[in-house]
Structures are given as structure tokens and as C-alpha cells.
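C-alpha cells please, single chain.
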Amino acid sequence: MRKIVYLDMDGTIFDLYGQDGWLEKLRAEDAEVFGGDRRIITEETLRIFFPSDEYDVRVLSMTPLNASKEYCDKVIEKKNEWLDKFFPSITKRIYRAYGHNKNLKNSENAILVDDSEPIRNSWRGKAINPAELWGWFFYAPRQLVPANDRKLYHISPPNVKWFFDFILILFLKIPKFWVDFSFENAII
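Here you go.
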């Protein structure tokens, strides 16, 4: 039986917070803030971390804070369009109102990947910070490239350790926890 993994979207696989004026767009109820190629990782990279034969990957995301029902419906539609385009293999999707506890019936036996520390701390199963999981893929876009130019394929890793993490994880498919353990003090 495959292990269930729930992925948050905003700040985990979709770079909402790297956009110029993202908060103003949310407050103005502009659903276009959830469009465009703003991937933090690709579906192919996701499958390196969570192979389809071992993991059932699903989306567990929230709608914006204090938004009207009409806007929440538009946001869900826009997020589904984005997922259909960039992560088409993820067909199971759950959307909750902002601030709602993300725990589900099977939380104890599932993995949650979410950028929110309070949400990770309240999860009853295993919760993972995407910055630790994606490593180089997650940090580089936020630190090196202006928000309107972020594309993973033009980014250089900011230090040698991330380069070795990238090589080991992507090409050799060595688990991230082993990379952290093995190279913690070995590289500058």
C-alpha cells in the first residue's frame, strides 16, 4: 500500500510569496495571483522525492484569509487549472478555508509537506518543511532572482553544499536525510 503525502500549494510547490504585490492582489480578490509558471519544483522532481509506486501524492491547500465565497471559488478553480497544467498526475485535491486545521482522518499515517510551521506542528502525522525537503530547489529562487524573473532553470546554487545535495538527490536518488547527515560538516 502506498503512503499518502499531502502537499500544500502556496509556498510549497507554488511560489505565491515571491510575486511582487501578492498580498495586495489577495486583498483585492484577484484570482490571477494563482496563475502563471510559478513552480518551486517540477512534477518530475517531486517524483524523485515521492515516486508514484511508493507514494499517493495529494494536494491539501487553503483558500485566502477573509475572502468572499465567490473569490474562494475562483481561487480553487485557478489552483485546479494550475495543477492540471503543471502537476497533472495529482488529481486528489482538498481545499480548506484559511485557518482551518489541516488534520484529516488519516493524518497519523500520512506525510504533510507544508511551509507553515504552525500547521506542521499541529499535524498528527509526519510533517516536513519543504525548505528542508527541496533544499536547493526551494531556497535558490527566493534568494537569487528578482520575483518577476524566477525560473528554476536559470538559477545557480548559492553554495557548494547545495550543489552536492542536488547531484546526490537528482542523479543518484539518494534520500535527502542521508545527504544532510553525510555532508553536514564535510563541505564549506
